[in-house]
Amino acid sequence: MRQEVNETFHDIIASGAKLIGAAVGSGMAARHLLAGGADFVLIATGGRFRIAGIPSCGAYTPMANANRLILDTALREVLPRAGGKPVIVGLCPTDPASDLDDLLARIKAAGAHGVNNFPSMGFYDGALRRLFERSGYGYGREAAFTAKAAAAGLFTLPFVYGEDDARRMAEAGADAICANLNLPVGASSPGFAPVSIADASFACEKMFAAAMKVNPDIIRLFYCAGPISTPEDIDAVLQNTGADGYMGGSVMERIPTAAAMEEISSQYKKIIHLSHENKTLRRELIRKKGFDEIVGQSTIMQDMYDVVNKVADKDIGILITGESGTGKELVVKAIHYNSRRADRPFIKVNCAAIPEALLESELFGHAKGAFTGAMEDRMGLFQLADKGTLFLDEIGEMSLGTQAKLLRVIQQRELRRIGSDRVIKLDFRLIAATNVNLRERVAQGRFREDLYYRLNVVSIHTPALRTHKEDIPVLVSHFLRRIADKLEQPRCRLDQEAFDALQNHDWPGNVRELEHALESASVLCSDYFIQRRHLPAAVRGLEAAPVPPAPRDSARVFADDVAAAPRVAPPGASRAPGDEEGSIRAALAGCGWRREQAAAVLGISRKTLYNKMQRYGITSG
Amino acid sequence: MDSKEMRARLAASAASGQPFWGSVVSGPGDAARAGRRGASWATVSHAGALDPNIPASAIGLLPYADANAEVLERRLLADEWDMPVFAGVFASDQFSTFEALLPALRRAGFAGVQNFPSVGLAEGTFNAFLRETGMDYDREIAMAKTAHALDFFVSALVFTPGQAEAMAAAGADMLVFHPGVNADGEYRGRAAGTLARLADVAAAARESSPGILLARMAFEREDAPAVPDDVPHGIQYDRIIE
Q1: Cβ atoms A169, A148 nearer than 8 A
Q2: Chain segment A22-41, per-residue pLDDT in tens
Q3: Please, which pLDDT band fits residue B223 given cuts at 50, 70 and 90?
Q4: Is the overall model pTM greater than 0.90, yes or no?
Q5: Cα–Cα distance for residue pair A515/A42, rounded to 1 Å
Q6: Which residue did the predictor score with more confidence, A338 or A162?
Q7: What distance lies between CA A421 and its chain's CA centroid?
Q8: Is any Cβ of chain A less than 8 angstroms from the Cβ of B229?
Q9: So what's the pLDDT on residue A267?
Q10: What's the rounded Cα separation, in Å, for the pair A502 and A507?
Q11: What confidence tier does A279 reach under pLDDT thresholds 50, 70, 90?
Q12: Nearest 10 degrees: Cα torsion B8, B14, B16, B18
């Protein structure tokens, strides 16, 4: 076995390729990673714990006898599925309860090709490690085990954690070493993995050099989790150090699998729920049109959803209030698509966008010859909305004259087209929206009080984004996904500084401004990685924020509804740039305090996030 | 023996002025020896059966066993001993929840628990990883709190005054101060300053729980002090000392 693996690996290296290994915890992972091109797998308890949903550091604690656990998995799951490709078994050499000779004989008889020292004493440090060392439980036992395994004809690929370990393993006759960069190696801050490619490269170089002094032909691999995890990062370390290969753990097994499983279960949940019965399916598909577009998990948004749900089925007047860009139209659509009128027309009118002279004709229609230019009969928007929902946006801009006519139509549920005596009966639901204070306009005599109360049976306020910044992470995720679909490109990621900028901005243009900022950054960035410099100047705090234009999603939308929105952030309202603590708290809150998700949103590793949480004293929600 | 009787017996024992000590034990032989020698309590742990050349509280942390399963397997012992017997609980175990484990220990005859082995001994990278993944000492505090709510007698291994305060607030009936390991990797059982640190631990704990019982961990034979003392306390031996 040993010679065979050595020849195979040296051939790969001689061909100019790099060795790629995968530390796995199950037969399925082994099978698929080998099928994808991995040159070997390491089956060790770290992977076994990961696949059980337990952090791999649990493999260093008394939750199981490491050797018994891994022997069972190696023999029953992994070896039968490896298709003859090299399988390395991680054994704990210091376990006083294990007969190492017997273990080596058993894995060899079962067809394993080699061994590794996992869990290793190299993981422990400080005084506790020194206690183990002085009690005979040190790394030296692992070197002795490696020598024993090599003598037994097994390929040996031990983890090394520093120069001394590398030298000792080379002296023990190891065929290969794997520099484990999960631990302090002198090149980084104690306690965590090297945070940069340079650190990782430096640490590897030192370990490789120490081993090569003993055996220049020793195969040199490295293992690293955390911040250095993408194929590009790994390639950089490979190039910097001349390493012969890389062994991946959670980046190859847990991370892609967990994400895929979450996504697929979510899809099934939706589909199965929908197929419960046709009626439900239709209702839910219709519902999807409305609610999927409204994003936010904050209390303020939850409260709004609650009201929307309650009023959707009630045929009552609703007035939506809120600043421009807060998604008033989305709320109206959610109400419409969740009402009994869902399969009937949804008609939107922007009252501010249509000249006063035309508005009456647009709303009520006209007969041929009713006025100059009325060349033929025309239906009004009220009539188009019959049986459905009519959405009057910017209702505050309507003239008093038109208001009077509108009130009459609402009260009588009938209208006459301009220039016609024929009464047309109508059945419609009216929802109005405004970004001005209508009550104030009533007081000023600019808006009819009777119409105000007729429209405003229930009012729903769409909150300004600056009042629920905790939703920014989930909004960012939503928009980046949508933008990726729209631009037909991979989903962009944000770095910490960019995220901080988004978090610090006060968003006078609200959610719409956020979407536009992300869309423009998605186009301007390189390698789908958004940095702060790719964001609009206003978002970076370099200039007052212009309010982005409204989307033109319908032929009936004639103008932006941004006129009344504030053009600049209120003085002193912005947080100082670089308020990292706030960003972290917001990301955590937005992700339900799931550190891994929050780290992904922030574009940093879980360990970095943890470090920062420690620094700012952030402990829980 | 139920937790109420444990409290009464241990309080009486501590107040009697007689030697007040307990030990980590691994099985019937250990237990019998401890009983013959007048132990006031015992903590059952698989670690007591591992290599005697290294303290049980250290080797017990290594991945050589399913610590909690092994304690459960020793179920029959708990009823047989005429002294308070605590189940050593590895609180960071991710294969079970306290809500499942503690009732199982109760069914196995245990009315008392101790966070043993304890990750309070971990430091550096090991501890950082445990903390990052929610498997750190805070979980032991949570275990103590749950056990107290379920009316277990709770003996808590503590390493710092802060942990002592937290464990007392969680409802611990007894604290066992573990002096830790010095920079050379030696246990600090008799090191200068240990008693002073014990006094700090006592002060922190007694502020919130005045009647809490106190002991310290010892790793080699000591003449068990009688109580009262300057800082009245008993001794818990890391394993049965021959």
Answers
A1: no
A2: 999 999 999 999 999 999 99
A3: low
A4: no
A5: 44
A6: A162
A7: 59
A8: no
A9: 66
A10: 9
A11: low
A12: 130
Tokens of A236: 């950089």
Name the token pair of A15. 């061909």
Classify burial at A214, counting beta carbons within 10 Å of its beta carbon; exposed 0-12, middle 13-18, buried 19 or more: middle
Is residue B47 within 8 A of residue B73, CB to CB? The reply is: no
Q: How far apart are CA B167 and CA B143, in angstroms?
A: 10
Question: Quick one: angle between helices A139-151 and A100-110, nearest 10?
Answer: 40
- DSSP state, residue A102: H
Question: Which residues are within 8 A (CB) of A465 and not within 5 positions of it... i.e. 6 or more apart?
Answer: A325, A326, A471, A472, A475, A507, A510, A511, A513, A514
Token duo for residue A25: 């915890």
Which candidate, B206, B88, B203, places its Cα nearest to that of B147?
B88
Contact A179, A186 (CB under 8 A): no
Q: To 5 degrees, how large is the angle CA B97–CA B103–CA B105?
A: 95
Q: For residue B152, which of B183, B106, B94, B100 has the smallest C-alpha distance?
A: B106
DSSP assignment letter at A393? E
**Spacing of C-alpha A559 from chain mean position:** 34
Measured between alpha carbons, how far is B66 from B86 in angstroms, rounded to an integer?
17
pLDDT per residue over A36-56, tens digit each? 999 999 999 999 999 998 988
In whole angstroms, give the CA distance from residue B236 to residue B56.
Answer: 12
In the structure encoding, which two tokens stand for residue A62, read together? 């008394």
Please check whether residue A183 touches B, CB under 8 A.
Answer: yes
Residue indicated by tokens 């273990």? A103
Comparing CA positions, the residue from A2, A247, A245, A246 lying closest to residue A113 is A2
Distance CA A377, CA A61 (A): 82
Where are the strands (E) in A306-428, listed by range? 318-321, 346-350, 365-366, 378-379, 389-393, 414-416, 423-425
Beta-sheet strand order (sheet of A389-393): A346-350, A389-393, A429-434, A318-321, A458-461
| ipTM of this complex | 0.93
Chain A residue numbers with beta carbons less than 8 Å from the beta carbon of B118 are: none
Nearest to B65 by CA among A360, A64, A323, A106: A64
Read off φ and ψ for residue A140, nearest 5 degrees: -60, -35
What single DSSP character describes residue A418?
Answer: B
Q: Which residue of A has its CA nearest to B89?
A: A62
Q: Looking at beta carbons, which residues of chain A come within 8 Å of B60?
A: 62
Q: What are B139-162's pLDDT values in tens digits?
A: 999 999 999 999 999 999 999 999
Can the peptide bond before residue A256 be classed as cis, meaning omega within 30 degrees of 0?
no
- A 83-112 residues inside an 8 A Cβ radius of B: 92, 94-97
pLDDT, residue B146, reads 97
Q: Which residue has the tokens 């308020």?
A: A579
DSSP state string for B12-35: HHHHTSSB-EEEEE-SHHHHHHHH
Tell me how close the Cα of A481 comes to any Cα of chain B, in angstroms: 29
DSSP A13: H
Residue positions counted in chain B: 242
Strand intervals (E) in A52-136: 63-65, 87-91, 114-117
Cβ contact B90–A61 (<8 Å): yes
* Structure-derived torsion over alpha carbons of residues B124, A227, A518, A485, reported in degrees to the nearest 10: -130
Closest CA to A417 of A469, A361, A487: A361
d(CA A389, CA B140): 59
The one-character DSSP state at B88 is E
Reading the block at residue B73, the tokens are: 């397997």
Q: Do B129 and A57 touch (CB under 8 A)?
A: yes
Longest dimension (CA), chain A: 106
Contact B239, B22 (CB under 8 A): no
* pLDDT tens digit sequence for A380-428: 888 888 899 999 999 998 888 888 888 988 888 888 888 888 888 889 8
Amino acid at A552: R
Question: Residue A52: helix, strand or coil by DSSP?
Answer: coil
